[in-house]
Design brief:
902 residues, nine-stranded mixed β-sheet, six-stranded antiparallel β-barrel, 40% helix, flat, Alanine--tRNA ligase, Ala_tRNA_ligase_euk/bac, cytoplasm, ATP-binding
């Protein structure tokens, strides 16, 4: 508990005392303006008391009064004034707050403003005079003298600060002037360190109470300031801060403005702040529900644009911290009556509209809860991976993914990152946001880029009933059509849009299994072929159990309310089923052969192939791969039943079912069992018996990441096609070799041995040729007399490969070359090699410096070590000049290294 300074007052008493004080001194009490600034496109929200008087200060509007006082509701979140990141982590930052202010429009000026402020603080609120300090602008001698004269404050408690802290301007041009802040010293026990002091730290000891702005200049486009004919006054004091001082508490959240809200949050969550959990989630929620309550009261609704987007960010940040407290159901609406009870007397509109406000908050909260849990898991995975890589910056692209897919505002991601010692690359995030905006401007999309936004468009539509486990056709009704950001009532022929049906046999992409494809057809009489209304090209699950079908309309088009027949492409479905069941068989076989550690870490099930990622440290041997493949095929030939059971999660786990990667499980789960072999939780489609898989072949096994391997395989018709192709290839080869299938392998071995023998003969001949070439090059070598007659060999060898050039260089050094410089332009890019013998390296000759001289000429760069270096370039036509340049550098180095030596 902090030290009580001054007269104990409730926040409502402070507010009314302030307004009455100034009303008694000729000020008109003006009601708070809306949080949405009227006629001011430069501001998202009202963020200060002077906003509603802006035109008065600019001389564009005249009022019937020249003195005013207000208790103004303010929001600082988004734009230039943004305290959102700090809320909850300090005791004095808020998204919503009240600013108490008094204003003079060409009436009184500095002297009366200082006199009013000092009198109210010391005589009405009874703050101890010796605890009050003031700051003034560095050049404002007048203000300092007035503080000494009126308040008797000594120079030791008057601090002069620069333009950043003590000069206020309405904008780049317009009214401006110095300001003076009144600060209270909350005590030595809150001292932050040796440098603790006004202007040097930002600790809780020095609390700014009141800012007095002396609007006395007008600044033009050139930055010139001229005195205003009628100087004005604009002041502001935060109600939350002064309440904490007078109520003797350490921070704003312990005042009567927040305590009732925090107590309600405690009741809902069942946990106690500071005891069961940290206090900051309570602070965040209590602040944010006040902001959201007042914004909704002023007509702002959560959305993805402008003010609505900022409100959504605030609301969803609160919801996320609710999850931290263990709150799983919508709760923000339950807090609205508490805010109304606390603030309703001063702002009766929130008391009158509290039912509506609660619905607005609850609606967006419910939408967000649909994706929050999944999004938090994804965020935690991404952040864990970032930390495992030893990085401290979370990719902006990852932050955008969380926003785009799960509706995570950047503030929420930043909070989660901060809790894990990470920061977010906000510039990269903003770049991704702008790219998305550009795409939206370029064309209207019908894909699934923003599932949450799609869900908002169909929030009144019930969940889609999936009947595709047992049926590939179903009569259905069109419930909604979505194109871009709009709901349509019908699709014209050729249109592409998203269609929501009441019932569907189409499986949506999930759990690694790809979507079904097919058609929507007009109903037909028995025995007739249905006319196609549209082709289904994509299917995806959305929040709330809705399934979206991407459809291209044909013939007559499609209308909402129309009855159609949904027909799945049966051949594709059968391929998907075979490959999905094959992944279950493969998973079990891997665990049996390699051990229980071989857990699935990813999969792709397509019509004609499967990809299966699993945890394992090394490559599988040929024997292991054969064992796995044989085990799968044995189960296929056994033709055992594939059983499906729906049960609760606890019972499924008790029976030994294992979870598949990437699946989200509710209380009710689907267990797929290959009788007597494997049992997994799975929502995908499968064959009825393993024999339907046909056959199984492993195509490849490779590494994906450290400790993760990947098998690619085919089953069913795809495996049959592969077998037939391989058989035809073998037949063609045996025919060309003139042998039968039984002699195929031995013939290949014989040919390989012959090839190896011939290659050895060729290598020996080339070696002899290199020796002959080396003898010729040594005879024609450049001799450096100033370096003890040491030799430099320079030669262009376009026919040699880099490794052959290195072999030649070794031979040349053996034959006495001190420096070897070889070049080739046989490929698209020129290549330069420099080699230096051991003695010359010891004397200081450096191959790297030599090769870089040549590389410069070729428009390239090089590197290596002092005994051997190489370089590439962009200009092969400059190779001869590069060799000459390298030769000059080699001569220079040899002469310098051996000057005066034998």
């Amino acid at each position: 508990m902090g030290e009580k300074l001054g007269k104990y007052l409730l926040s409502s008493e402070i507010r009314s005392s302030f307004l009455k004080y100034f009303e008694d001194r000729g000020h008109t009490v003006v009601p708070s303006s809306s949080l949405v600034p009227l006629g001011d496109p430069t501001l998202l929200f009202t963020n200060a008391g002077m906003v509603q008087f802006k035109d008065v200060f600019l001389g564009l509007e005249k009022r019937s009064y020249t003195r005013a006082t207000t208790a103004q509701k303010c929001v600082r979140a988004g734009g230039k004034h943004n305290d959102l990141d700090n809320v909850g982590f300090t005791g004095r930052h808020h998204t919503f707050f009240e600013m108490l202010g008094n204003f003079s429009f060409g009436d009184y000026f500095k002297e009366d403003a200082i006199k009013f402020a000092w009198d109210f603080l010391t005589n009405v609120l009874e703050l101890p005079r010796h605890r009050l300090w003031v700051t003034v602008y560095k050049d404002d001698d007048e203000a300092e003298e007035l503080w000494k004269k009126i308040a008797g404050i000594p120079s030791s408690r008057i601090v002069r600060l620069g333009e950043k802290d003590n000069f206020w301007a309405m904008g780049e041009t317009g009214p401006c002037g110095p300001c003076s802040e009144i600060i209270i010293d909350r005590g030595e026990d809150l001292r932050c360190g040796q440098s603790c002091g006004i202007g040097t730290c930002d600790c809780d000891r020095w609390l700014e109470l009141w800012n007095l702005v002396f609007m006395q200049f007008f600044r033009d486009e050139e930055g010139n300031m001229t005195p205003l004919p009628k100087p004005s006054i604009d002041t502001g004091m935060g109600l939350e801060r002064i309440s904490s001082v007078l109520q003797g508490v350490d921070n704003d959240f312990e005042t009567d403005l927040f305590v009732p809200i925090i107590e309600k949050i405690q009741e809902i969550s069942g946990v106690e702040p500071g005891k069961d959990v940290p206090v900051f989630p309570f602070r965040v929620i209590s602040d944010h529900v006040r902001a959201c309550t007042f914004l909704a009261s002023d007509g702002v609704q959560p959305s993805n644009e402008g003010r609505g987007y900022v409100m959504r960010r605030i609301l969803r940040r609160a919801v996320r911290f609710g999850r931290v407290l263990g709150i799983r159901e919508p709760f923000m609406g339950q807090l609205v009556p508490i805010v109304a009870a606390t603030m309703g007397e001063a702002y009766p509109e929130i008391r009158e509209r509290q039912g509506y406000i609660a619905k607005v908050l609850a609606l967006d909260e419910s939408r967000f809860l649909n994706t929050l849990e999944e999004g938090q898991k994804k965020a935690e995975d991404i952040m864990a991976q970032t930390r495992e890589r030893g990085e401290t910056v979370l990719s902006g692209r990852d932050a955008f993914l969380l926003y785009d897919t799960f509706g995570f505002p950047i503030d929420l991601t930043k909070d989660m990152a901060r809790e894990r010692g990470l920061v977010v690359d906000e510039k990269e995030f903003e770049k991704a946001m702008e790219e998305q905006r550009a795409k939206s401007r370029k064309a209207r999309k019908t894909g699934f880029e923003d599932v949450l936004e799609l869900h908002e468009l169909v929030q009144d539509v019930p969940p889609t009933k999936f009947v595709g486990y047992d049926n590939l056709t179903a009569e259905c009704k069109v419930l909604a059509i979505v194109s871009g950001n709009s709901r349509l009532t019908e699709m014209e022929p050729g249109d592409e849009a998203l269609v929501v049906l009441d019932v569907t046999p189409f499986y949506a992409t999930s759990g690694g299994q790809e979507k079904d494809l097919g058609t929507l057809e007009f109903p037909s009489a028995p025995g007739e072929v249905g006319r196609v209304a549209g082709s289904v090209t994509d299917v995806m699950k959305g929040p709330g159990g809705i399934i979206f079908h991407s459809v291209k309309a044909t013939r007559q088009g499609i209308m909402v309310g129309q009855t159609l027949v949904a027909r799945v492409d049966a051949k594709r479905r059968r391929g998907l089923e075979r490959h999905h069941t094959a992944t279950h068989l493969l998973h079990k076989a891997l665990r049996s052969v390699l051990g229980e550690h071989a857990q699935q870490s990813g999969s792709l099930v397509d019509e004609s192939r499967l990809r299966f990622d699993f945890s394992h440290t090394g490559a599988l041997t040929k024997e292991e791969l054969k064992k796995v493949e044989d085990m799968v095929n044995e189960m296929i030939m056994a033709d055992v039943p594939v059983l499906v059971e729906e049960t609760n999660l606890e019972e499924a786990r008790r029976k030994g079912a294992i979870a598949l990667f990437g699946e989200k499980y509710g209380e009710k789960v689907r267990v797929v069992e290959v009788e007597g072999f494997s049992k997994e939780l799975c929502g995908g489609t499968h064959v009825r018996r393993t024999g339907e898989v046909g056959q199984f072949q492993i195509i490849s096994e490779s590494a994906v990441a450290a400790g993760v391997r990947r098998i690619e395989a085919v089953a069913g018709e795809a495996a049959l096609s592969r077998s037939q192709y391989m058989a035809s290839v073998i037949s063609e080869i045996t025919e060309k070799l003139g042998v039968g299938p039984d002699e195929f392998s031995s013939k290949i071995d014989s040919l390989l041995n012959t090839i190896a023998s011939l290659e050895r003969e060729i290598a020996a001949l080339r070696q002899e040729k290199r020796k002959d070439l080396a003898d010729l090059l040594i005879r024609n070598a450049s001799t450096v007399s100033e370096a003890g007659n040491r030799k430099i060999v320079v030669s262009r060898q376009d026919s040699l490969k880099p490794d052959e050039m290195r072999n030649l260089g070794d031979v040349l050094k053996e034959k006495g070359a001190a420096v070897v410089i070889l070049g080739s332009a046989g490929s698209e890019r020129p290549f330069l090699l420099v080699m230096v013998d051991e003695d010359s390296v010891g004397a200081g000759v450096d191959a790297v410096k030599i090769v870089r001289k040549g590389a410069e000429v070729m428009g390239g760069s090089g590197g290596g070590k002092s005994h051997m270096a190489q370089a590439g370039g962009r200009n092969p036509q400059e190779l001869d000049r590069a060799l000459s340049s390298a030769l000059e550098e080699a001569r220079r180095q040899l002469i310098e290294a051996y000057r005066g030596k034998p």
